[in-house]
Amino acid sequence: DTAVSQTPKYLVTQMGNDKSIKCEQNLGHDTMYWYKQDSKKFLKIMFSYNNKELIINETVPNRFSPKSPDKAHLNLHINSLELGDSAVYFCASSQAPVEQFFGPGTRLTVL
Amino acid sequence: SQQGEEDPQALSIQEGENATMNCSYKTSINNLQWYRQNSGRGLVHLILIRSNEREKHSGRLRVTLDTSKKSSSLLITASRAADTASYFCARTGKLIFGQGTTLQVKP
Predict the structure, then answer these.
(1) Cα B11 to Cα B100: distance, rounded to the nearest angstrom
(2) What are the C-alpha distances in Å from A23 to residues A68, A79, A105, B8, B91?
(3) Residue B41 and residue A102: Cα distance in Å, rounded?
């Protein structure tokens, strides 16, 4: 019954590695998002997809690449991980640009 | 910065007291939303107030909006320990969040 799910919940990896975080929503929403929350709790939007089409792409290093195979999924792939990438990453979805439904988050730790 | 800014950053009160959090923003808005984040969890939508509304209620929550001052406030009445969380405001569209207000309600 989970509306927005993310895997994995925790990810610990070495600098320089490549990793992916998966997100799925079963709400039938057209729009999905990725956010990054840093240690000071600032929550910043990274990407937004509407019906598999990229509509928001904030100033994010091109090491981050979102992929939306269908409108229920939005995955985030990160190449050459850096220490500064350590954060909690949240996926969200919405039907209209109003209420967003957030996933539980993926805590990424880069060593 | 276009992000909303919540004030105070941290608030500690006793159960039963009221908690007031404020939010300021820099650009004009269509709507403004408040979200809650429990520790280690994702954000949960609480309430949305439209730019033509001045006040809105939902249970123990009361939100006000002053577009002339570009500010909003969230009031939680008769707080409970379960209200302990971080609270964020965000303007609708491309949601821009601030740092949130961390509320601790002591039993």
Answers:
(1) 11
(2) 9, 18, 10, 33, 24
(3) 9
What are phi and psi for residue B34, nearest 5 degrees? -115, 140
Contact A90, A102 (CB under 8 A): yes
Helix (H) or strand (E) run with residue B22 in it? strand B19-24
Report residue B29's pLDDT band, with 50, 70 and 90 as the boundaries. Answer: confident
Say yes or no for a CB contact (<8 Å) between B94 and A40. Answer: no
Angstroms from B64 CA to nearest CA on chain A: 18
Is any Cβ of chain B less than 8 angstroms from the Cβ of A39?
no
Per-residue pLDDT of A25-76, as tens digits, reads 999 999 999 999 998 888 888 999 988 888 877 878 999 999 999 999 999 9
